[in-house]
Structure to design on (272 residues):
């Protein structure tokens, strides 16, 4: 069964970013429950910002699961990237992601590598950057295995990285790595920019997709842009996808209405 989730950002430095709820974890969890979401996805400033036992209790009290935890604060707050030219920075970046895996794993949730993948340039060749990224995802995927969760790797569009920008390329990147416990995060906003054909890309990446960012072409909530969701939902179902569609969207026109719009669209395209 494909499940719904909504994002909660607790990182002030990410203000303006594509997250539905902001700042208030307890209030956001209450709203997610009220609207009928299955889970929340949290974007924390770091692993020390939240106590796993508190999060477990809060979600348990509201009948919600934790869909995933973002690592983007490693970039927006600490300027750490897994492909940095400096080995010490790369190591700190890996340690940061590892600490998020250690926070999320016991709660049954995967960590996401998105903006922390970085880019090539500034003295780092494409080949070297892809080598650093490969090593990092292999090591971190293997670390996540001990919690029985995958590591999520998110191809992001050309304006945010120059490494791997599409799901089709992401599947080609992971295929030779074998069973490395890394799955792709298919963000429909990035895919709308980069893929030739969204449903075809989903079919080509069959078995490699572990999470979906459910959002529209303009990064507004699903249904407020021009993405055609019916064939995307059909491709996800056809390929046996049974994880989360998580609203990583701008709080447009505001957080509450963005969450309401998302759950309405989710129920339209993924009826139970
Ligand atoms: C994160 O999930 C994402 O989609 C990126 O665009 C953040 O930079
Ligand atoms: Mn995303």
């Amino acid at each position: 069964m494909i499940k719904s989730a909504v994002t909660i950002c607790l990182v002030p430095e990410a203000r303006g970013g594509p997250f539905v709820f902001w700042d208030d974890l307890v209030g956001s969890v209450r709203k997610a429950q009220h609207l009928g979401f299955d889970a929340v996805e949290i974007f924390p400033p770091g692993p020390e910002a939240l106590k796993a036992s508190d999060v477990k209790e809060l979600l348990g009290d509201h009948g919600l699961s934790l869909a995933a935890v973002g690592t983007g604060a490693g970039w927006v707050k600490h300027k750490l990237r897994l492909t940095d030219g400096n080995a010490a920075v790369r190591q700190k970046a890996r340690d940061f992601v590892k600490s998020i895996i250690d926070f999320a794993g016991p709660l049954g949730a995967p960590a996401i590598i998105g903006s922390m993948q970085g880019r090539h340039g500034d003295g780092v060749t494409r080949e070297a950057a892809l080598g650093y990224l490969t090593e990092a995802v292999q090591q971190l995927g293997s670390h996540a295995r001990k919690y029985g969760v995958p590591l999520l790797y998110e191809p992001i569009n050309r304006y945010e990285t120059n490494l791997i920008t599409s799901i089709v390329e992401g599947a080609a990147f992971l295929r030779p790595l074998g069973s490395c416990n890394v799955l792709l995060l298919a963000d429909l906003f990035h895919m709308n920019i980069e893929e030739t054909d969204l449903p075809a890309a989903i079919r080509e990446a069959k078995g490699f997709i572990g999470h979906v960012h459910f959002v529209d072409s303009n990064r507004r909530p699903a249904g407020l842009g021009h993405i055609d969701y019916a064939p995307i939902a059909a491709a996800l179902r056809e390929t046996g996808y049974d994880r989360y569609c998580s609203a990583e969207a701008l709080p447009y026109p505001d957080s509450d209405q963005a969450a309401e719009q998302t759950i309405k669209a989710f129920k339209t395209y993924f009826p139970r």
Observations:
- Residues 126-145 form the longest helix (20 residues).
- The chain has a mean pLDDT of 98.
- The beta strands are 3-9, 21-22, 39-43, 65-70, 111-113, 151-153, 182-187, 209-213, 244-247.
